Amino acid sequence: MRDQQTEQSSVSPAGRPVADRERRTHLGQVIRKYRTAAGMDQASLAACLGFSKTAVGNWEHGLTRPDVDTLPRLCEALRIPVTELLGLPVEAGLSAEDRGILDMYHRLDRFNRRTVSQIMDRLCFQQDSREKERLRGLYRELRLYEEAAAAGVGAPMAEDAGSRIVYSLKSRIPGGADAIIRVNGTSMEPTYPNGSLVYVSTRQEVLPGQVGIFILNGESFIKEYRAEGLVSHNRRFQTIRVPEGSDVRCCGRVAGRVEEGDLAAGALLEKVEAAFEENAG
User: Fold this and answer.
1) Which of 158, 232, 149 has its CA nearest to residue 190?
2) What is the rounded distance in angstroms from the CA atom of residue 11 to the CA atom of residue 187?
3) What are the residues whose beta carbons fall under 8 Å from the beta carbon of 6, sequence distance 6 or more?
């Protein structure tokens, strides 16, 4: 059996006791309250924790307090919410419902606790699987090209332009769109502002009056295609004429802007990524 020595009261420079005495008093009252509710006497609790009856009495009278290593075992033995033992606000810990469920769990023997844990594992797995299936139904993978189109002066574009996978809501993806490209420059404002993202269909032909992604002599542009050339929506920019014999290629038709909320982000993105990674596996 171990015993604890009585702590000396801490005092301020002016000789007044500090809050430590109040904390010990509170802790002792909580221990007594839960020990009594559990139908245990001080000797029984002492034997359970490996202390003497005197040590438990000193705790309850606020003369001493258990050390840090003893507090978790004390909470478990008497089923004391740690927030109540330490005098923390109730909202800092479990709700009343959660504490009730935890109390019932602690009343179970080891076999029944294992059974409950197995059931919870199975239910959580099934719930997670349904949620991942739901997310795969809501979102679709698209490749986002960060430096694929310039709306202003042309910007060199390599065939292997840097890209990454993003996840867009299926309901927001225009028909035929299979990629997303970031706009660089102001020549297509206000339709497609600098830095905005656009959906692109790389398999659809660009007809006169439609906006597309073009590569002209190694430089990439997002422009409206017309008979007279590649036209900017910003009137400050001149139409780009395409001389006969120029090296020009159309990379796809712009199907619309990516709006706020279209792409999964933050914590939601992590869940969506996990759902698609599991499906790929």
Assistant:
1) 232
2) 73
3) 58, 63, 64
The residue among 105 and 58 whose pLDDT is bigger is: 58
Q: Is the pLDDT of residue 154 over 50?
A: no
User: Which pLDDT score is estimated for 165?
Assistant: 92
Length of the chain: 281
C-alpha 183/C-alpha 189 separation (Å) is 10
148 pLDDT above the threshold of 80: no
Q: How confident is the model at residue 125 (pLDDT cuts 50, 70, 90)?
A: very high
Looking at per-residue pLDDT, the higher value among 29 and 218 belongs to 29
- From the options 3.40.50.300, 1.10.260.40, 3.80.30.20, 3.40.190.10, give the CATH code of 20-107: 1.10.260.40
Amino acid at position 35, single letter: R
The CATH H-level superfamily of 138-280 is: Umud Fragment, subunit A (2.10.109.10)
Structure tokens at 158: 């390599």
Distances from the Cα of 117 to the Cα of 77, 113, 114, 120, angstroms = 21, 6, 5, 5
Go through 144-179 and write b for each residue having 16 or more CB atoms within 10 A of its CB, e for each that does not: bbebbbbbbebeebeeeeebeebbbeeebbeeebbb
